[in-house]
Amino acid sequence: MLSRVADNLYWFSRYIRRAENTARLVGVGSMLQLDLPRSVRFSWRPMIDTVGSGEIFTALHPDAGTDVADAEVVRFLLLDEQNPSSLTVSISGAREILRSIRDTLPQEVWEAVNDLHLYLGGSGERALQRRYRLEFITRVVDGCLKVSGLLSANVSRDIGYQFLRLGTGIEQADMTTRIIDAGASGLITPRSEEDREAFRNMQWMAVLRSLAAYQMYRRHIRQRVSGEHALRFLLQNTEFPRSVQFCLARIQHVLPTMPPRPGVDRHLNRVVGMLRNADPVWLAAHDPAAFMDEIQVHLSNLHGAVVEGYFYN
C-alpha cells in the first residue's frame, strides 16, 4: 500500500473518532448544566483548555476572560473553522480525505460522512441553544458511529484496515483522557465545602454518561460512582472499548500485522507501562488532570513514531 493512502486511512479514522468525542465532550458540560441547581456556578472555559486550544480561543476572543458564555464555547468547539480540533473541521477533514481515496472505502461510507457534513452545515447553529444541544450532539454521535459501523462491517481486513484501527485506537485513547480531564478540571464551583464531594461525583457521572460508559460501569464496578472507581474503569478496564487500556491493547494487536517499527513499539510500551502503574485512588485524591496531560504527551509521541515509521520513512 502507498504510504499516502495509509496516511489518509489513518487520519480518516482519527478525524471520525475525534468528531464523535468532541461532541461527547460538549455533552459532559451540557448534561451537568441540566442537572445542577441554578445557584451553583458552572464554568465552560476548562473544556477549551482540555482540548489544547486555549491559546487559539484567547487570540480569537481576547476579552472573554475565564467567565465565558456556554454559547461561545460550544460554537468554538463544534462549529468554529478557525479551531483545528473543532467538530466541523474534523468532519470536513474526513470528507476531504475521502475525496482522494473513495475507491478504497465503500460508497456507503462517503454517503454517511457527506450526510453528516450537510447536517452540520444546516443545523449546526441549533447546538448553540440549550434546548436543542443534546439532540444535536446525539445526532452527530450517531452519525459517527454509523461510519464506524460501516467500516467495521464492510471493509476487508487488509493492511488498510489495520491503519484504520491504528488511528482509531490512538485517537480514542487520547480523547478518553481529554474527557476525563474535563470532568476533573473544576467545571463546578460548589456553594459550600460540604457540597464538594457530591458535585464531584456528579461530574464523574456526567463523564461516564458522555462516553456511553455508565451501564458498563455498573456491570463491572457495582458500586456508586466515585472518582476512584470511574478512573479505574475508564483508564484500566480491559473490556470496555473506550477505556484507555482497551485502546492500547487494540494497538498492540494491530502492530504484529504491520511492518515492524521498533520506535512505535517502544513508545507504545512506555505508555502501556505508565497506565498499568497508575493508582486510581491516588489520582482521585490529587490531580487527575496532570496525569491525563502526561498520557496525552506519550500518545503524541506514539503518533509521531507512527508517522515517522510508516508514512515518511
TrEMBL record:
Domain DUF403: 1-311
Domain of life: Bacteria
Cross-referenced Pfam families: Alpha-E
Record-linked InterPro entries: ATP-dep_Glu-Cys_Ligase-2, DUF403
PANTHER family: BLR5612 PROTEIN (PTHR34595), SLL1039 PROTEIN (PTHR34595:SF7)
Protein name per Swiss-Prot or TrEMBL: DUF403 domain-containing protein
